[in-house]
């Protein structure tokens, strides 16, 4: 389970190292804040927040970087590399690339004047990336709300999350080919390649939403079609109006939605039809050339079957009831009893681990390559 205390013992200096490197990077080039925030979004919406976005192509594998929304568009990889190198020195092989990116996204917002939240940690880095998953995961800048919303819903996010997170477009720039709004964009009208997403591209404020509201009957003045689409949906428009008039409400919802986005993982899928969690089954096993009867008793735990009836602890088997007789196991039983999401998440992780015998994910030493 993700936790804000995940590195408290294993790498207590992690957040300080990340934040001070980020302050220096943003001081050198303030435009990196927007690019790094976007990197986290592009990581989380494709296969979950697992640093799959960082993987370079190899001879056997084409990663996400060359997919249309990312190609010649994503920036900031060198900032992550610098931070990763520092963390490897301080706490070798401990802090995952995906966790670094989650903290960097938060710092990007804070250093641009936006809200602060406590970042949850504990992600592991993927062992694969998939170019085609990028288009399946990411929303299209020419979509309307009916096209955008399913991309958020498929990772467990709501319309409210979508409108709040779109406020990320209060910082940064985009290629002029994407410009659809009515507001004249000085750089684009000077035939430059990129224009600012709003009038204050280094400041995390609520200008983005003010631009979307009609001022003179000319239509919304967002940059992308997907920005302007928000005011053409009644439900989204209500939120745009709230955020445009109340920056505090925008900041509060952004905080909540960023934490939620940081929790997106393929292994936390909630789309299971039978009511339980769903995960991506990994394939590649081979079938055995032998079987051995005695290995069964050696391998499987003993349920102590003479007590195989409902006893006073309510579980069926002695092995079930024994879980509450160990303090450590009892703690987990209590967490899972109260919180089905935590149970589903850990159950999923452990199922995959069981199939792989301990090789699920990793903490990459270099964010661009699997170890
Ligand atoms: C609603 C769906 C979204 C669509 C269709 C979309 C699309 C785009 C596009 C096309 C660009 C310009 C890319 C380029 O010119 O190369 C862009 C830039 C950007 N996006 Fe989004 N985006 C969406 C949601 C988000 C979210 C959820 C975030 C973060 C919370 C975000 C953060 C950014 C930032 C900060 C930039 C500027 C990047 C820079 O200056 O380097 N976007 N987005």
UniProtKB/TrEMBL annotation:
Subcellular location: Secreted
SUPFAM superfamilies to which the protein is assigned, alphabetical: Heme-dependent peroxidases
Positions of disulphide bridges: 11-91, 44-49, 176-188
Residues marked Transition state stabilizer (site): 38
Active site: 42
EC number: 1.11.1.7
GO biological process: hydrogen peroxide catabolic process; response to oxidative stress
Catalytic activity annotation: 2 a phenolic donor + H2O2 = 2 a phenolic radical donor + 2 H2O
One function term, GO molecular function aspect: metal ion binding
Cofactor (UniProt): Ca(2+); heme b
Binding annotation for substrate: 139
Any Pfam family the entry gives: peroxidase
Superkingdom, natural source: Eukaryota
Keyword Lipid biosynthesis: no
Residues binding Ca(2+) 2, per UniProt: 170, 198, 200, 205
Annotated Gene Ontology cellular component terms: extracellular region
Keywords assigned: Calcium, Disulfide bond, Heme, Hydrogen peroxide, Iron, Metal-binding, Oxidoreductase, Peroxidase, Secreted
Residue ranges annotated for the Plant heme peroxidase family profile domain, each copy included: 1-371
Note accompanying the cofactor annotation: Binds 2 calcium ions per subunit.
Residues annotated as binding Ca(2+) 1: 43, 46, 48, 50, 52, 64
Residues that hold heme b according to the record: 169
Family: Belongs to the peroxidase family. Ascorbate peroxidase subfamily.
Biological function: Removal of H(2)O(2), oxidation of toxic reductants, biosynthesis and degradation of lignin, suberization, auxin catabolism, response to environmental stresses such as wounding, pathogen attack and oxidative stress.
Protein name: Peroxidase
Species in which this protein is naturally found: Thalictrum thalictroides
